[in-house]
Structure formats: C-alpha cells, structure tokens
Design a protein that fits this description.
Length: 403
C-alpha cells in the first residue's frame, strides 16, 4: 500500500457524507470512533475525544505526542495490511485500521481511548508524569480520569473488527469518488477535443479528416474510463490529442515524411486500442527518405481507407503495412497495404483512372489525394492501386524527392 502524495483526505472523501454515514453506524460500538488523515489529524467535524484525551490535546507537547502515536500506529497497520491495537503515551488503549483507496493509504479509523478490564485501571495511569511532561495541572487530569471507559477485552476486539469494516467502507467511497472524477475529467477532455474537431472542420483542413472516427474514439474514451485503469485511457487521449494538434498546426503545405509517419503511428495506435487484436500494423520506412517532404495529410485518407473499406468487417488478424523507399534515384514510392477485403475490379479501374465517378464508390478521398499530388508534382506522380478481391489491397504513392 502506498502513501498518497500531494492530495488530501478531503479531496477524495466528502466529509459531510462521511459524517452522516458514521452517525448511522457508530451506534454499533461503545467506544469513540475517530477518522484521521495520514498525519493523525481528525478529518471529522467533531474530534470525538473523551474529556481525558481532549485535555491532553490542549497541551502543545501532548497534542504532538498523540498525533505521533496515532500516525505511527496507523502507518504500521498500513504496512502490515491488518488492523492493530496500541497503547498511546497517555496510557489509553486504541485500535487502528488503515484506509486504502485503490491500494493507496489516505488515513485510518481509530477506536478506543479506553482501558481494558483486568489489564488496566484508572490508578495504573501515571498522571503525575503526564502533568509534568505536558504542563497540565494535576487536578485537571484527576477530574477527567474517572471519565475514561473501562471495557472488556472481547468488546474491544469487536470494536476493532468494526473499525476494519469502517475503513474498508470509507475506501470504497473513495474509489467511487475517484471514478466519478475520472469520468468528469474524461468528459472535459472530450469537450475540449470536440471543440478542436470543430475548429478543424471550420478551417476545411485539406487532409479530409473523418469526423466519425473522432467521435467514435471519444465515445470509446468515455467507456474505457469506467472499466480500465487510467494508464490505457490516458494513452488513448494522449495519442488523439497529439493527432489533433498536428492537424491543427499543419499550416505548411509540405511536411517531412518522418512527421507524417509519426502522426500516422498515433492514428494506428488509436485503432489498435479501439479494436484490440483485430487490427495490427507494421511500418518499414527507409531512413534515407525520412527527411524528404510530402504534402501534409497525404497518408491519412489512404490508411483510413484500408480500415473502412478493407478491414472493418474482419474479426481478427487485420494488418496494415506501410513501407517506403527511393526508386529511380530521384523518386519516393510509398506502399500502403492491408489484408482485408479487396476492391471490385470495375471500382479498382475507376480508382486507377481517377475518374470523377469514384465518388459514388466511396473513393472520393483517394481521388482528392491523387489530384492533389498531381497538382503539386505533375502527371507522373500520384496514386495507383493493386487489389485482389479476396485477400489484399495495395496503394502505391509516388512523389519526387524534395528537401
């Protein structure tokens, strides 16, 4: 169990709700119940101290010693992962159970401030020593001495058992609150990302980003927040945020190929998270071409097309391979292939001819990409497609080497 850093008990436990619940439950025990943070400070509105303890707390030295006794006992209970009994410096018996929220120590439940019948008596307390050490008038300590409860050992053990269940109950409340906070944080991220998407759409970004992909992924984030650890959710949000940021900042017509590849990796990582083992990818780009430039957003519609039209219905084993190398000493050829459903021959012919009618066959993004490449570099460059109807499709991208 770890000690929670940089966060207070109040940040994950609503004290008002805790008070109401404790009022309902404390009638099951005869000894005072206290809930303290990792430093031993009470987190409740009422300190719930008996008169004897309250008097000792009025002393600066007594206060520090009691806090130290409680926090050390709670820390030991946390380390050993079990409820424990202890006798504090003022001579009272207590029981402590650590409160854990998702394996993190945030405080403890303490019962006691009692004497155990047959083991302790009022006379066994050295109040003269306490009076001198804590600078408390002896007669005041004497007046409060008789208010200390003396209980049976069995009753004390039962109260400690109750403290253990109370600590567990508070921990569950904390876990629920953390889950709610994660959901709220994910919602805020989602709103932010949706606003970014609106900005992209309003700017008519040339890379033809599929808004359905964005919103589907955002919904996935919301669902994942309920059922998984934050790490995987954060990875998905991180990839999507960087992916969006890249497009928002893509004001340059040409970007280095390595930047485009890095952004495509984020897109493919998102697909891998969303569809688990249904989709995998491999990238094999020659290092010598990474610093050459390519029109921004060239690869995305082609990769997206692999999934939407090739792999969407594949239940397992879907794979996308991206490779690139120099050809003819002055040109770059990039291959994007998938092992999904191929393209009907007559549609493939339309795509290769880049006929305007391809819009009717969901090939509009490929047509736009091809036209854009030819407008940039001339008729010798652009896209060509190979496809087997049963098991694969390959899109070849041809561009010149441009620094």
């Amino acid at each position: 169990m770890d000690v929670l850093q940089n966060i207070k008990f109040h940040d994950i436990i609503d004290i008002e709700t805790l008070e109401k619940e404790l009022i309902k439950l404390t009638h099951w025990v005869n000894t005072p119940i206290r809930v303290v943070d990792i430093n031993g400070f009470s987190v409740r509105n009422e300190s719930n101290l008996i008169s004897y303890s309250a008097l000792i707390y009025t002393s600066n030295k007594g206060n520090k010693q009691c806090l130290l006794d409680d926090s050390q006992a709670a820390f030991l209970a946390m380390q050993q992962n079990k409820a424990m009994t202890y006798t504090n410096k003022s001579g009272l018996s207590n029981g402590v159970a650590a409160i854990s929220v998702s394996g993190i120590y945030i405080g403890s439940v303490i019962v006691g401030q009692v004497l155990i019948r047959g083991q302790q008596t009022h006379q066994s307390l050295d109040i003269e020593l306490l009076s001198e050490e804590y600078d408390i008038p002896l007669n005041q300590l004497q007046k409060t001495l008789e208010t200390i409860p003396i209980i049976e050992s069995e009753e004390f053990i039962n109260d400690l058992y109750f403290a253990s269940h109370m600590a567990e109950y508070i921990g569950k409340i904390g876990e629920i609150n953390i889950t709610k906070k994660k959901m709220s944080d994910e919602y805020q991220k989602r709103v932010c990302l949706e606003q970014q998407l609106k900005n992209i759409t309003s700017n008519n970004n040339q890379s033809q980003i599929n808004s359905h992909f964005i919103f589907t992924t955002l919904n996935t984030i919301a669902r994942m927040a309920l059922i998984e650890n934050a790490s995987e959710t954060e990875e998905l949000v991180f990839n999507l945020s960087d992916w969006l940021r890249y497009h928002l900042n893509s004001k340059e017509e040409l970007r280095k190929l390595k930047d485009e590849i890095e952004n495509i990796k984020r897109y493919l990582d998102i697909l891998s998270l969303r569809y688990s083992d249904r989709i995998s990818y491999k990238i094999n780009i020659d290092d010598e071409i990474l610093d050459y430039k390519i029109p921004t957003g060239t690869l995305l519609p082609i990769i997206e097309n692999c999934f939407v039209h090739g792999l969407k219905d594949k239940q397992s084993g879907g794979k996308i391979i991206l490779s690139g190398t120099i050809v003819n000493n002055s040109d770059i050829q990039i291959r994007v292939s998938d092992n999904g459903k191929g393209i009907e021959p007559y549609i493939k012919n339309l795509l290769n001819s880049m006929n305007e009618n391809v819009q009717s066959y969901a090939g509009f993004s490929l047509h736009n990409t091809h036209s854009r490449l030819q407008n940039c570099f001339g008729p010798d460059y652009g896209l060509t497609i190979e496809s087997d109807l049963v098991y694969r499709t390959i899109v070849f991208i041809s561009i010149p080497c441009i620094n």
